[in-house]
Amino acid sequence: MKDNGNLFLPPGHSTIAPGTDALFDFIYYTSIVFFAIVVFVIVYSVWRFRPWGFKGYLRLFIIPKDALEIKVTGQRWFWSFDYPDGATSVNDLVVPVGKPVKLLMSSKDVIHSFFVPSFRIKMDVLPNRYTMTWFEATDTGAYDLFCTEYCGAKHSSMIGKVRVVGEREYAQWLESSSKAGEGMPVEDYGAKLYAQKACITCHSVDGKASTGPTFLGLFGEQVKLEGGGTATVDENYLRESILSPQARIALGYQPVMPTFQGVLKDKQIDALIAYIKSLKESGSK
Amino acid sequence: MDGIPAYNYLNTPKGWKSWLLTRDHKRIGLMYLFAIMFFFLIGGIFALLIRIQLLTPNQALVKPETYNQLFTLHGAVMIFLFIIPSIPASLGNFVLPQLLGAKDVAFPRLNLASWYIYVVGALFLIYSMFSGAADTGWTFYTPYSTQTTTSVIATTLGVFILGFSSIFTGLNFIVTIHKLRAPGMTWFSMPLFCWGLYATAIIQVLATPVLGITLVLLILERLFSIGIFDPAMGGDPVLYQHFFWFYSHPAVYIMILPGMGIISETISVFSHKKIFGYKAIAFSSLGIAFVSFMVWGHHMFTSGQSEIAAMIFSFLTFLVGIPSGIKVFNWLATMYKGSISLAAPMIYTIMFLILFSIGGLTGIVLGALSVNVHMHGTYFVVAHFHYVMMGGTVMAFLAGLHYWWPKIWGRLYSEFWARVGALLIFIGFNMTFFSQFILGAKGMPRRYSTYLDQYQPLHGFSSVGSFVLGAGFVVMAVYLIYSLFRGRPAGNNPWGGLTLEWTTTSPPPPENFIETPKITHGPYDYDKVIADNG
Known about the structure:
The structure holds 2 protein chains of 2 kinds. Chain A is of the alpha+beta class. Chain A has 6 helices and 12 strands. Chain A has 3 domains: about 1-50; about 65-180, Sandwich (Immunoglobulin-like), CATH 2.60.40; about 185-285, Cytochrome Bc1 Complex, Chain D, domain 2, CATH 1.10.760. In chain A, a hairpin with a 5-residue loop joins strand 11 (about 220-225) and strand 12 (about 230). The longest helix of chain A has about 30 residues, at about 15-50. The relative contact order of chain B is 0.11. In chain B, helix 8 crosses helix 13 and helix 13 (about 380-410) packs antiparallel against helix 14. The interface of A and B includes residues 52 and 121 of A.
């Protein structure tokens, strides 16, 4: 029997050689099989699971052209949202399910960060600059919204909900928000706005101290001002405090309130003032 | 005193002036040790107050403003006053010249100056605590830090001053390692702790000035509104983040590299086996130091930096895993088939290996871009860096403290109580911080003084863990202090180590060695030499 050798082994010419060669061949072919499996898994994984890495990140920056665009404004310590047809909301982002939504975001003061854990999205919100992110919600429901860039005293209250609703509900919500306050007592509308527009974050209505003065019994009071002087809390003082909060600061409070210029309409400011007035009556009973 | 050499650095020369004006690296190391342990206590108290606040969702202890100052002070004190100087300036100062067989560091006066500069910086931070403590977080992000009414200037000025102390120590160590090795000690027969300190020193000298400049710009911005960072004046707040992390990411390696150096010593001594892969460990320290300068952008994946930059930073971040992995596998290979003794330093070494591995691997999770977008700014990050910094650096520091404690004082502590303390610390640490990985992945943001109800069970569990952790440290403080008075005399070489500090008395004489040591064997030649326990 003539042995011609193979790719690795020279021809064998002894009684030892066939045994050695057989063992070599066994290990050799087994190895090839296992090596093939390993390489296959590598290649398959690289092909199948690549979007996990860079691609998954890049998808955050490829915003679909037909996305619904909502303007997000972060300021201490609430989020406000402007919808395409003029509707607005605070700390309550309402979006239709199954439609891409683009968020065009900026801050009015320090850096904030827009985070919705259920959507796995987060983007910093900077002053004097726009940042963007987008999502397409797959299920209806209410999901937590957090600020994740530290922004001061009430950072942990700068939270809200993203409400994902059906297409029709979304249309209804837009319509009703433009008619909000109609057909209800003005104080009640004010009470609603107090929670909706995040006054509640810093002002209590039960006399408790917080970042800002409590509203309980506030109307008609004489307050001392930072830098001397006093002011009577009347309609004009309240209006000024809402629109240019830094103008006259009550003594003992930090000048941290943001302006609500552009966030609140005249009718809404009237309603809030009416609500604060009503708190005086119940407070002095 | 029985068993303790009558002539040692602790009692010669005498008098408080001889301490305050000392140029002896051992005394300076000891003064650093007292200072950093003091601030570790202060920072730890802040941490416990934070955890008490978070026991319940709604403001269990203090109002939000105070809470914000608490976590800022916890971070600033732990990072700038404790962990950055911890290993290099205390243990490093004490043992580096002895490891090299030298009488002292290259510049003893500079060494003393660095301690006084540290004290001045610390005084600024203490002053700031009583004059409206900063509420910016230890990162001092603009524009928040330029607008807040708290004492940001005193705090940042303190950190600026502390930077010089760090630079002086680094500079001193570089020259010491280059110039003062004992006759016959080559670069590759140095103990690996020296390599760790050398890599650290390079980062200290090169990166710290950037932090100094950044903080000066921040102070100028606050005082004179120069408009570098303030967007209202055309500045860029993200520029601040770039500047800040250009220092503060390498600073993470200032914190961990000396710890890795200690582990390389203890793992070999307590496995009674030659260190596996000496050169790989030595060069991986330099490798980490080098890569550390190029990964700062991974703190800004959600800050609006370009996608290309983010991808490059992500890739470079993964690279850090390679030298760190090399070290871990070399340590494991050192233990394998060794003869392991579970003395206190080895227990802390094993705790380091476990906790640092978790910290390192979760770093890979955070380095992956789209996952980072979800995890960024949540408790997952908090848990990750506590596993690396506390599970890594602090455990290594404790391993080193227990390892060199007999050399520093000449006395041994109770092994039994050391085990009790270590067990409490291990259990408490994992309870406190593992729960925070889950919290973060579920979306809990960091720096929240109040939180939604759904996070309460995990927060409560974490808080209870922190009390166990605190109890572990109390046990440690008691048995260590007790050992100073009642501990058994240690003898020159209680662990059977082969590095040069174990050839001199415990405590050593003022200039370390009676005669210049001769190098007769490598630092880890356990296969060739039987250590003299005398």
